[in-house]
Amino acid sequence: MARIPVGRILFLGLVGLIFVFVIAPLVVILWASFFSDRILTFPPTGYTVAWFARAWALQDFASGFITSLELGVCATITSQLIGVPAALAIERYPFPGRETVRQVLLSPMYVPAIVAGAAVYIYFIQVEILTNVQLASTFTGLLIAHTLVALPWCIRLLCVSLETANATSEEAAASLGANKFQTFYLVTLPSIRSGMIASAMFSFIASFSDLEKSLFLVGPGMTTLPIAIVNYLEWNLDPTIAAVASVQIVIIAAALLVSNRYVNLGKAF
Amino acid sequence: MAGVSLHKVRKVYGDATAVEETSLEIVEGELLALLGPSGCGKTTTLRMIAGFVVPTSGSVQIGDRDVTTLPVHKRNVGMVFQGYALFPHLTVAQNIAFGLKLHGWDKAKMQERVDEMLSLARLEAYAGRYPKALSGGQQQRVAIARAIANQPEVLLLDEPLSALDAQLRTQMRAQIRELQRQAGITSVFVTHDQEEAMAIADRIGVMNLGRLEQLGSAQDLYQRPASRFVATFIGKCNLIEGKRTAPGEFVTSDGHRLRVPDTAASQDATVVSFRPENAWLSDAPDGAANAVPVTLKASVYLGPSVEHEVVTAAGSRLTISAPAREDTSHWQPGQALYAQWRVEDGLCLA
Fold first, then answer.
1. Does A190 score more than 80 pLDDT?
2. Which has the closest alpha carbon to A79: A26, A148, A14, A15?
3. How confident is the model at residue A265 (pLDDT cuts 50, 70, 90)?
4. Where are the domains of chain A?
5. For the residues B27-42, what does the mean pLDDT come to?
6. Do residues B137 and B272 share a domain?
7. What is the CATH superfamily name and number for domain A45-268?
8. Model ipTM?
9. Average pLDDT over residues A180-202
10. I need a labelling partner for B53 at 20 to 30 A (CA). Which of A70, B27, B82, B245 fits?
């Protein structure tokens, strides 16, 4: 008679429970976004897609969505522009203070976002007092803050990617006649391409879902989707919010799926 | 094609000297092996020729160009790395074409050259494969084909065989030798394996502690080692400590008198060395040859030969190799015998 693998069943049961715990709220939100009742009730009396239309019709959500999308894309680009050269310097050139630079670039990940958000806000005000250049409640200001959100993800993932890419293949390129730029373009870049895509996706997700760092920096006419959601939730509880959240979930899930195609996310951390 | 000359090059890292002042001429078309234990400076020397390391002082010449400070990509050297360092995102053919593209070869000529390299390396069937789909030996051949495709003036090989298993290593070194001869390209081969160096190189430079100890053919190094290090690093060697007392005379540390060849080099000798195969054991000393009383410790039968481990009164361990056809079974461990060798086979070393 085969032994019943009690340990294994318990383990799989626990893993299953964790999955349910993580995924159930997301499923509920997706489901609730189609409820026809004006006030969230269970079980629903019918289904509709009207909440998605209503969400789009609300100025705050529509413009917040656009702003978040633009911010996400721009912050991804700026963080790559800073992250790739920085990671390259950290991994390939043994300059003094290299570890310090790495830690500084990773630090936005360790500082509580709300504290960092407040700090950035105070800094922007100081800059405005000194130079008369307004940064708070502007797109530029938000972009700077979101670049900070995205940068640690870039540095972490790109450094891992450069570590695994063989540095001697860069020497091989040089011995074959490639100068520094040709080596970078023809050898280094292709070998970290998947790391770049993954870090870009993570940057985008981090920026797109950021709430705390943006909290002090938004202003009239310049707000992000997560903040629009919080503002709406203060006074309302209807499936509109579920519809908005559903859109957000789908976008983030898509980004995760894309990045998983390029790097083994389980291995990157 | 061109030779390479290192003129008084020296490389210092902080307060560690990687390579002491070294001069070295590599003749056009020859394959020179740099041999030595790890940390002896052989790789640093190679990297100075390649241009990855700029010497602290001295100069490097390829042909009649001074390349001491010329960056790697302008030197026209081909290099084969320890882990091959193939480009993983390019196919075998693209790997080989990499240097040709950079040097602006036109398409038709480039294709022709790539095909030529593929057939030289016997890789025609693998042109479209990516490196990770190749065996170690095949990757190795791609690395060599890539390095010589652009007709470099010098081919540099940094322990190219160390990642392969023993059998393949023997095969590959013959192939490397053949490729190098066909291309007639001046080559420097770095290795820590003396057998490999002897099998592949025209000349061997033995390095130790950042110094070039001796430069010569395998035969020179084996028969006429210039130092105690070379004697013991290349093949097995017996050493007996002592002091030269008069021309042609050497007294061991336990007071035994030996005769040695009278050469200038033996002036301040502190050791007499001889090869295991040049010595024999006997029950009673035979007057013409040197004889040192020893005690037999063990005899090991190796097929073609028998190795006798013996120890002198002063405690020096010696190995004496005898052809297996000689019947030595009447000698038992613990027995007192004489280790003998011809005067001219003993070498005085400092």
1. yes
2. A148
3. low
4. 45-268
5. 92
6. no
7. MetI-like (1.10.3720.10)
8. 0.81
9. 89
10. B27
B66 and B119 inside one domain: yes
In this structure, are B24 and B143 located in the same domain? yes
Helix runs in A33-137, H state only: 50-57, 59-92, 98-106, 113-131
Tell if the pTM clears 0.80, that is, is over it. no
Amino acid A29 reads I
DSSP 8-state assignment for residue A187:
I
Looking at the fold, whether B191 and B326 belong to one and the same domain comes out as no
Q: Worst-scoring range by mean pLDDT, A32-41, B75-84, B178-187?
A: A32-41
Number of structural domains found in chain B: 2
Which residue of chain B is at minimal alpha-carbon distance from A179?
Answer: B73
pLDDT of B33 reads 94
Q: Is the peptide bond before A108 cis (omega within 30 degrees of 0)?
A: no
| Mutate: best of B54, B70, B102, B142, partner A, most A CBs <10 A | B102
Last residue in a domain, options B206, B228, B250: B228
- B251-280 burial: b if 16+ Cβ within 10 Å, else e: ebeeebebbbeeeeebeebebbbbbbbbbb
Instruction: Residue A182: list chain B partners with CB under 8 A.
Output: 73, 102
State residue A41's pLDDT score: 76
Rounded to an integer, the average pLDDT of A6-29 is 91
User: Among candidates B281, B250, B269, which has minimal Cα distance to B343?
Assistant: B250
The Cα B115–Cα B97 span in angstroms is 10
Residues 6+ apart with CB under 8 A from B46: B34, B156, B158, B188, B190
Same domain, B215 and B240: no
Q: What distance in Å separates the CA atoms of residue B225 and residue B243, rounded to the nearest whole number?
A: 18
- Segments forming the whole domain that contains residue B157: 4-228
Option in A168, A177, A186 nearest B150 (CB):
A177
Bridge partners (DSSP) of residue B249 are B246, B259
Give the DSSP letter string of B182-240.
HHT-EEEEEES-HHHHHHH-SEEEEEETTEEEEEE-HHHHHHS-SSHHHHHHSS--EEE
pLDDT band with cut points at 50, 70 and 90 for residue B347: confident
User: What is the spatial distance between Cα B96 and Cα B87, in angstroms, rounded to a whole number?
Assistant: 10
- Would you place residue A40 in the very low, low, confident or very high pLDDT band (cuts 50, 70, 90)? confident
- The answer to whether residue A103 neighbours chain B at the CB level (below 8 Å) is no
Question: What DSSP element (H or E) covers B290?
Answer: strand B290-301
- How far is residue B208's CA from residue B194's CA, in Å, rounded to a whole number? 13
